[in-house]
From TrEMBL:
GO biological process, one term: proteolysis
Keywords: Aspartyl protease, Disulfide bond, Glycoprotein, Hydrolase, Protease, Secreted, Signal, Zymogen
UniProt main location, coarse: secreted
MF GO annotations: aspartic-type endopeptidase activity
Originating species: Penicillium rubens (strain ATCC 28089 / DSM 1075 / NRRL 1951 / Wisconsin 54-1255)
Reactions this protein catalyses: Hydrolysis of proteins with broad specificity similar to that of pepsin A, preferring hydrophobic residues at P1 and P1', but also cleaving 20-Gly-|-Glu-21 in the B chain of insulin. Clots milk, and activates trypsinogen
Identification of the protein by name: penicillopepsin
Subunit structure: Monomer.
Length: 429
């Protein structure tokens, strides 16, 4: 099945110009691009779970989100995940650049890519919002492996224990992974790091154990937030950057399809038009940038006051915006409301969804099509009998930063650049 979606990126030339969506030579609105979709096999990705995961990851307190318990909301049963075809490795000739598939899992809940550790290939989730690599291995009790393929250090001649080191990643109270740390040859898209450190959890929370599509995380945030003690370890990207043609990786995530991460090069074939180069504040360990204005549909730009900084996070499914942006957005959606018992913003599935533009840096904005804001069917309105949908756009609650996850990133071609550091945003080719 093939859908044609529309992406509009509005580039304004100065901060002031952003207060109105002016037509500039860089105005790309109305151009189309194609998104390949694969059949969903009846799987419905579970929005509230995706949102809870993100809230936990960033320790967000949702107690003071304004919302009501809606008595006529009846949630659907969560359906079981169906098989998603395995990603295949795509090795480039050059040793200094490499590309790897990013395969959508369960309706874009996450994207997984093949990673080779000591000769063993496992599907893992690349997470630009954390800085630990950890892999499910034979060190994990059988009860938590859930019949997945695990990495077996004893079968790798290049594995080394990092004696005395432990890692502990904790996303709030209920989601975690911890255990000893080892080193091995890690190869992604044909780019190799000889002594890459990674965690070998002896314990993970049920949320990780149940997610059998992913065998661990590859943190692509800044190494300053790596959790290994007594000595922090570098991420794969930090280790490999000096050997790359350019110290970058790029992300092209495709909704319900197979996109790509590429290391070491910015492929001019992958995007078109202007690339917005935005400076990054890495002091919190994230790919954090200024995003201080928003506009809904064709409307004017408004300032974002509660959380005017955002992070580009490939490891979060949804786009979580400053509370006032979420509130303003769903005011423009017929029947849109924040329902506490649905754990987020919901709307009748037949409502039309406007696009959302957010500033990226002081001089540019990116427009996310309304269709991307429709995460999944989530329940029934027992008054009207209508199907209710869950928003791909949700509030970032008490967080001091917005979290622009996959719902945002899927609309763009994104460059994560150590120079600066900076982020590049462009319309995908
Ligand atoms: C169900 O529909 C009624 C009537 O349109 C509306 O007032 C109510 O808020 C809706 N409830 C939900 C959960 O959407
Ligand atoms: C949202 O997606 C559901 C399927 O998941 C579809 O039935 C519905 O029509 C969509 N609604 C909008 C407004 O795009
Ligand atoms: C973006 O800006 C930074 C800092 O000014 C620079 O080092 C980097 O090369 C630029 N990136 C691109 C892709 O132009």
């Amino acid at each position: 099945m093939q859908f044609v979606l529309f992406l509009a990126m509005l580039f304004s030339l100065s901060f002031n110009a952003l207060s109105l969506p002016v037509d500039s030579p860089n105005h790309l609105q109305g151009r189309s691009f194609k998104v390949q979709r694969v059949k969903r096999d009846g799987y419905v990705s579970h929005g509230p779970t995706a949102l809870r995961k993100a809230y936990r990851k960033f320790g967000i307190d949702t107690a003071n989100l304004n919302g009501v318990d809606v008595s006529d909301f009846q949630p659907f049963e969560t359906k079981h995940a169906t098989h998603v075809k395995a990603a295949k490795e795509d090795v480039e000739d050059s040793e200094q650049t490499g590309a790897v598939d990013a395969t959508s899992v369960d309706g874009d809940v996450e994207f997984v890519s093949p990673v080779n550790i000591g000769g063993q290939t496992l599907d893992m989730n690349f997470d630009s919002g954390s800085a630990d690599m950890w892999v499910m291995s034979s060190r994990l009790p059988k009860s938590l492996r859930n019949s997945r393929t695990v990495y077996e250090p004893s079968k790798s001649s290049t594995f080394e224990e990092l004696k005395g080191s432990t890692f502990e990643i904790r996303y709030g109270d209920s989601s975690y992974a911890n255990g000893p740390v080892g080193k091995d040859v890690v190869s992604i898209g044909g780019i190799e790091v000889a002594g890459q450190a990674f965690g070998l959890p002896t314990d993970v929370s049920q949320t990780f154990a149940e997610d059998t599509k992913s065998n661990g995380l590859v943190g692509l945030g800044f190494s300053s937030i790596n959790t290994v003690t007594p000595e922090k370890q570098n991420t794969f990207f930090d280790n490999v950057a000096p050997n790359l043609d350019e110290p970058v990786f790029t992300a092209r995530l495709l909704s319900n399809g197979v996109g790509e991460y590429e290391f070491g090069t910015v492929d001019p074939e992958k995007y078109r038009g202007v690339m917005a180069n935005v400076s990054v504040d890495s002091s919190n360990g994230f790919w954090e940038f200024e995003s201080a204005q928003y506009a809904i549909g064709e409307g004017p730009f408004h300032p974002i006051t509660r959380a005017p900084q955002a992070i580009a996070d490939t490891g979060t499914s949804l786009m979580m915006v400053s509370p006032e942006v979420a509130e303003a957005y769903y005011k423009q959606v017929k029947g849109g409301l924040y329902a506490k018992n649905a754990n987020g913003y919901i709307f009748p599935c037949t409502s039309s969804l406007p696009s959302l533009s957010v500033a990226v840096g002081p001089g540019y904005s990116a427009t996310i099509p309304g269709s991307f804001m429709n995460w999944s069917e989530v329940g029934t309105n027992t008054t009207t009998g209508e199907t209710v949908c869950y928003g791909g756009l949700q509030s970032s609650g008490s967080s001091s930063m917005a979290i622009y996850g996959d719902v945002f990133l899927k609309a763009l071609f994104v460059v994560f650049d150590k120079r600066g550091p900076s982020l590049g945003f462009a319309a995908p080719a």
